[in-house]
Design the sequence.
């Protein structure tokens, strides 16, 4: 048993307060939120039943954690109502509409620009920024 495996294996919950298992070693009957969603279920207000843990270089504390829920206590996913579908359609329309020229595009406007590319870079600017002769030169 490796050191990483031993650090992540605590089925009694003595070390972390809840049962902890190594990544991909959760017992049957437990599932993460994504796994529940794939089954058409949701946690439904139940408390966290355990966690799976693995080493990670991205996290500050060196571990990634995914919480586990009991499958038998999970509830079915609520279906989308027509009002929710309408609200989602309006939100997506707002993301595709340029606030400057009010044109609706088939793609979401880049949040880094805050407007469409044509408004962000007027006619001569876009060509000058992308031309090979000005690559690497300060503007």
Sequence:
């Amino acid at each position: 048993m490796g050191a990483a495996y031993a650090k992540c294996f605590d089925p009694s919950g003595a070390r972390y307060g809840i049962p902890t298992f190594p990544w991909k070693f959760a017992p049957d009957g437990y599932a993460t939120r994504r796994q529940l969603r794939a089954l058409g279920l949701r946690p439904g207000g139940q408390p966290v039943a355990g966690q799976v843990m693995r080493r990670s270089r991205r996290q500050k504390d060196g571990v990634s954690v995914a919480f586990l829920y009991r499958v038998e206590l999970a509830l079915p996913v609520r279906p989308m109502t027509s009002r929710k579908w309408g609200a989602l359609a309006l939100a997506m329309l707002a993301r595709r509409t340029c606030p400057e020229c009010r044109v609706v595009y088939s793609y979401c406007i880049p949040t880094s620009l805050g407007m469409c590319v044509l408004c962000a870079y007027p006619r001569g600017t876009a060509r000058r920024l992308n031309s090979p002769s000005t690559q690497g030169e300060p503007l």
Remarks:
- The radius of gyration is 24 Å.
